[in-house]
Every structure is written in C-alpha cells, then in structure tokens.
Amino acid sequence: MDNLINFLKSDIALMSNLCLILFLSIGLVILLIRVSNLNKRYTNFMKKLGKGKDIEEDLENYIYRVDKVERQNAEIMNICKELNNDISDCIQKVGIVRYTAFEKIGSDLSFALALLDEKNNGVVLNGIYSQEMSNIYAKPIEKGESSYTLSKEEKEAVERAVNSKLVYNIRN
User: Fold this and answer.
1) φ, ψ (nearest 5 deg) of residue 91
2) In whole angstroms, how far apart are CA 103 and each of 108, 130, 142, 153?
3) In this predicted structure, what is the pLDDT of residue 3?
4) At residue 166, does pLDDT exceed 70?
5) Phi first, then psi: what are they for 57, rounded to 5°?
6) Where would I find the H helices in the chain?
7) Residue 156 near residue 87 (C-beta atoms within 8 A)
8) Does the pLDDT of residue 46 top 90, yes or no?
9) How far apart, in whole angstroms, are the C-alpha atoms of residue 172 and residue 150?
10) Contact 139, 158 (CB under 8 A)
C-alpha cells in the first residue's frame, strides 16, 4: 500500500494524469465539434424537408388547419341535424291522379295533385279542364284528411301521397 501512495506522489503519476486530462479535453472538443456539425446538418435537413421553411413551423400550421377542419366539420354536422329536423315540414310525399272531368273531352287533361309533408299535412290541388276554361282548386290537408269535401280523384291523390313512403309516386 505504501508503494502505491509513493507512486501517486511521484512525477510520473502527475505526468500521466496530465496526459490523460489533455487527451480527455481533446476528445471533449472533438465531440463538441461533431455535435455542432450534426445540429447544423439536422437543421438543414429539416429546412429541406420543409421546402425552405422550418418543419416545426409547418407542423404547427398543419395542426392548426386540422383543428380548423374539425371545428368546421362539427359545425356542418350541426347544420345537417337542423336540416334533418326542418325537412319534416317540407313536401316529401306526392300523389297525382289524372282523369277526364267531362265526357266529351278526352286525354285525361284534368288532375288531382296532393303535396304532403312527413306528417301528411299539405294541400291537394284539383285542376279541372274543359273546352271553355280551366280552373284549379286548392284544399288544405291535415294528417291525411281535409275539412272540405274531397272528390273521388282528390281522395285517391291524397291516399297515393300518404302511402308513397317518402318517395314521389306519380301514376295514371
């Protein structure tokens, strides 16, 4: 043990420690230079990848645009839900019956047309054609019925509309 302590106190140990410190310092400088070069190469690579811009800035812009699209999508979905609610009041069911109102006039030029919403509310139009004139009459329909007396053709048009199952149903 005394030999080891004497060796550490000698000039040779001091010189070898100085050489080791010098060698490690040179290694540290080399590593710092390499890290600096690697950092420059990484920055240049990211700029090339970002087409002259910083890729981090591009990613932030992309994330912003994705968030904006998600907000717009949610807004569009809300509008679609409102439209679905509103569409029940629109004309969805159609029934038409063509007929000859007067014996002497052929070609089924008269018609009864029922226009109903999802709840079978709407109107039935009756267009009566004769050689002298043409008239159109309108009668309100609520829940598939009218408070006015309906002709045979008007009843059939309303029935066709009610049974159309949300599809236009036009028959002769």
Assistant:
1) -65, 125
2) 10, 10, 32, 15
3) 74
4) no
5) -65, -40
6) 2-9, 11-49, 55-86, 152-162
7) no
8) no
9) 19
10) no
